[in-house]
Amino acid sequence: MDYRVLQTIEVALANFNTVSVSDINRRCTGQIEGAGSASSHYANGGGHAVDFYLLNGRPLTGGDPGSLKLIRALDPVMPPNTDLGQVGCRGSVAVTNFLPFDDTCDHLHIDFRQAQGTTLKLST
After folding, report:
1. Which single residue of 28, 110, 111, 121 has CA 20 to 30 Å from 22?
2. Residue 88 has what pLDDT?
């Protein structure tokens, strides 16, 4: 499990009363779907990405208000070049540390495959 995934969930929990994750480590479950074995959920031992599907009980599209709130909370603390899915599911959002890419509009995907840094920049 990538420590940055756990830190990302921590930030989500600091901003929402309830957080639901649909995918972290497919290597543990043996799932090969979507991007298959190339997915950061599976490749290199798995656990290098997280998919959120509900925030405060509301479904996510990557462009809904909850997704946008989480993106804005995460962007300043993310290591540079962290991948952010669902670019085609929302209007333009200014980000500094995220690299947006296309993904399905039924969750919010955060991916550390290309990220430059071993932790989030969280204050202690």
Report:
1. 121
2. 97
